[in-house]
Design a protein that fits this description.
- The chain has 249 residues and is of the alpha/beta class.
- The chain has one domain: Aldolase class I (TIM Barrel, Alpha-Beta Barrel), CATH 3.20.20.
- Helix content is 30%, strand content 18%.
- Strands 1-2-3-4-5-6-7-8 form an 8-stranded parallel beta barrel, surrounded by 4 helices.
- Strand 6, helix 5 and strand 7 form a beta-alpha-beta unit.
Length: 249
């Protein structure tokens, strides 16, 4: 496979440090089992995204407050969902929504969905991430590009989503050489349509491309990737066990 031609990665037989980034389950009222699973002891969760109503909503949602409280009490990282609209965002609206997330749900950071990828947008994104760090007094920021952006974005946030899409594309994907200069915990891969029989292969792709945070699901993205990620994968218990102890070559 083409991803195995990359150099510069540590080729070990372990997935140590690998964990899940949950890009946004359905509303807690509609997906109570999914949200409950996140706090199950032993689940290697790096973060989960709360998206109330394409943002924090107009007022605190009691079901989301309850779900957020469970994660926070379990010592888990909760991120608020903000949409950068491929660069067509309103700065004031983003900051206002971020403050609501902090005030209402005590989030630990933000997932900036549909982040732009071009060099020309980098200065604006840096302004946003710097402002959000001030709102959070630190916190964790994830830029949800969905593909590899201009390399300068790597310094603008804690993590970049450098793949979000179907397994049919992911299994043949490649990472540019500049990514080898960063640790795996800097990159996130979100993949739908991964068959159970290909889980080991998908884990190897993630490791060879240097992605330390993943979310793989067998669900399809026919209604959009968000729909595929809105529920637990059918092999949730299996993938939890795979990620926990590591994968051998």
């Amino acid at each position: 496979m083409s991803h195995l031609t990359r150099i510069g990665r540590e080729r070990t037989g372990t997935a140590a440090g690998t964990g899940f980034g949950v890009p946004g389950y359905a509303h807690p009222l509609l997906a109570p089992a999914e949200w409950a699973e996140l706090t199950r002891p032993g689940t290697p969760l790096h973060w989960a995204v709360l998206n109330v109503a394409d943002g924090p909503g107009a007022r605190p949602d009691p079901h989301c407050l309850e779900a957020a409280g469970r994660l926070t009490n379990a010592g888990l990282r909760l991120l608020g969902h903000l949409d950068l609209r491929q660069g067509a965002y309103d700065f004031a609206d983003i900051v206002c929504d971020a403050q609501r997330y902090v005030d209402w749900y005590r989030v630990d950071g933000f997932f900036l969905d549909r982040a732009p990828v071009h060099r020309s947008d980098l200065a604006g994104v840096r302004r946003i991430t710097a402002t959000l760090e001030a709102v959070l007094d630190g916190g964790h920021l994830v830029l949800g590009h969905g593909t590899h952006p201009y390399p300068g974005y790597a310094e603008a946030a804690d993590q970049l989503v450098t793949f979000s899409g179907a397994w049919s594309e992911y299994r043949w994907s490649q990472a540019p050489e500049w990514t080898a200069g960063y640790a795996p915990d800097h990159f996130v891969h979100l993949v739908h349509g991964v068959p159970r029989s290909h889980l080991d292969e998908a884990m190897r792709v993630a490791r060879w491309q240097g992605a330390g945070t993943i979310f793989f699901t067998d669900r399809s993205g026919h209604g959009g990737s968000g729909d595929a990620f809105a529920a637990l994968p059918g092999y949730w218990d299996e993938i939890v066990s795979l990620v926990g102890p590591g994968i051998s070559e």
